[in-house]
Design goal:
Keywords: Dioxygenase, Oxidoreductase. Its EC number is 1.13.11.-. It comes from Acaryochloris thomasi RCC1774. There is one protein chain. The mean pLDDT is about 95. This protein has a single domain, classed as Jelly Rolls. It is an alpha+beta fold. Helix 1 runs antiparallel to helix 2. The strands form 2 sheets. Strands 2-1-9-6-11-4-3 form a 7-stranded mixed β-sheet, covered by helices on one side. The protein is globular. It is about 15% helix and about 35% strand. It contains 2 helices and 13 strands, in the order ββααβββββββββββ. Bound molecules: fe (ii) ion. The site of fe (ii) ion (FE2) has 3 residues, from loops.
């Protein structure tokens, strides 16, 4: 079902079911992370590390992290100009914003040309994907999938398409570690600008990170 016609909520969340919902408020108090002005990137990085240390529930982690990403993007006007332009031969470009041995996140800017599609995959980590830029910048159509088997059979996964949702600049999506999606980059009407994304990935469980082929029910690590 394509929910793109529904009023768009800025914050969305998706998990194993493949149902994409407006993000609920976290059950834990976010006052541990006071608003700062300016909200510097170094502060954001420390807040994320504190979040992992103080909040154990993945759902709450995603909801709090999405609010922190929203705060950062509202203030950090240097981020959008830092986005790389997609390489014409690859159709995308990746700019790593932060990675440090032992630090529990990887933070990247990824830019995509319209028309680029990803395989069906999970992240095996909780993740935040924010679509950035103005109304002329590209969108990202997400197809979410629901895994129907119990995962016990090696190299086998039976997937059913679940919901579709097109993310636009201003949307922030939180993905639970077991969420499965495939994406297609789309241009905004009357524009050919790339899709620009700000991404936060938690520490992945690499043994459970897969690319799926729903046509053959095969999967492989990535
Ligand atoms: Fe993804």
């Amino acid at each position: 079902m394509d929910h793109s016609h529904m009023p768009s909520s800025a914050l969305l969340e998706v998990g194993k079911s493949g149902i994409c919902r407006p993000m609920q408020p976290p059950s834990q108090n976010i006052e541990h992370f006071p608003q700062r002005d300016p909200y510097r990137f170094c502060r954001f990085l420390c807040d994320l590390e504190d979040l992992v240390e103080t909040v154990s529930d993945d759902c709450d982690r995603i909801r709090i992290a999405a609010l922190l990403v929203q705060r950062l993007l509202a203030q950090a006007h240097w981020i959008m100009p830092s986005c790389p332009e997609p390489e014409p031969n690859k159709g995308l470009a990746i700019q790593r914003l932060y990675r440090e041995p032992g630090y529990p996140f990887t933070i990247k800017l990824v830019s995509w040309l319209p028309g680029i599609k990803s395989p069906v995959h999970n992240h095996a980590a909780w993740s935040i994907v924010a679509i950035i830029g103005d109304a002329t910048c590209g969108h990202e159509r997400n197809q979410f999938w629901h895994r129907q088997d119990d995962g016990r059979q090696p190299d086998y996964a039976q997937l059913q398409p679940a919901e579709q949702h097109t993310l636009k600049p201003g949307n922030i999506l939180g993905l639970m570690p077991d969420a499965i999606h495939s994406v297609e980059q789309l241009s905004a009407p009357h524009s050919q600008k790339p899709t620009y994304t700000f991404n936060v990935y938690g520490k992945a469980d690499l043994k459970r990170r897969y690319i799926f082929d729903p046509a053959t029910n095969r999967l492989k690590n990535h």
